[in-house]
Specification:
8 helices, 2 domains, mainly alpha
Length: 208
Amino acid sequence: MVLDYSKFKELESSSEEIHINIDRKTWSKLKKNQKEEKKKLLQEELTSLENKSNKTKEDLKRMDEISHKLKPKFVEVDSSTFTCEKGSICDQGNSTVVDFLQPLLFLMTHNSLTDFINLIDDNNYDLSVFEEFCLYNLAENIKSKNEAEAKILSKIALYFKFSIQNGKSFVKKLNASLGDEKILAQFEKEVEEFYLTCKESILNLKKE
């Protein structure tokens, strides 16, 4: 299946402040290592607190703080960013865009194809607009070097791609077939390839 990456073309690259005595490559690697180490330490602290049998109020407060810091970061957009055709789910008299942030956050933690199908079946979302919001956040997470989050968003983006290009019946058949280990492995491989292609596309845009 040929995938369309044109929606990434207009995303602006974010600038990074480089230390005067460090080249860009070394600086980027240093920042990435620092970020990963900080995230690892926070996760270890959270696990330690969760394993405590008698948690104090301070423990619970700290757990909330850490959970908030570890939560995937997303970019909220307003009606000026995504426009919707009259009569769509986005049109509420004044073209107010539906809030896709909460459903996307839900899919980040409930990201099986079954979860996706249920969410789409239960809500009248404009899939094209929702897909664009997902791709926008995928691009932002790639630029921010949030690899784990970007890979999950890549999988969700593929769900949208399959749904829009092939229809719900195809997606439901695919979901039923994922119980086969070979098909599941092939799907996971496609997700990884999609992520790597998106990553290359975004990083090339940053160089332009």
